[in-house]
């Protein structure tokens, strides 16, 4: 199985969102809709925000 949900079941969703890595600026430029959705759910100041603003 590619994803083991049992390992993540012990943590509440808020902790999982906080523990997520910052989105890559290159990925944000290639997938602006997904990057905006990710930053809407887990807002953070990162280089991906600068890329999205420049588009």
How do the strands and helices of this protein lay out in sequence?
Layout: H1 5-8, H2 13-19, H3 25-30, H4 32-41, H5 47-54
Please provide a written account of the structure.
It is built from 5 helices and no strands. It has helices at residues 5-8, 13-19, 25-30, 32-41, 47-54. It has one domain. It has 55 residues and is mainly alpha-helical. The N and C termini lie far apart (37 Å).
Number of strands: 0
In terms of structural class, how would the helical and strand content be classed?
mainly alpha
Principal-axis shape equals elongated
The value of Rg in angstroms is 13 Å
Largest sheet: none
Number of domains: 1
Which percent range describes the beta-strand content?
under 5%
* Oligomeric state: single chain
DSSP helix count? 5
Q: What descriptive keywords fit this protein?
A:
mainly alpha; 64% helix
In short:
The chain has 55 residues and is mostly helical. The chain has one domain (11-54). It has five helices and no strands.
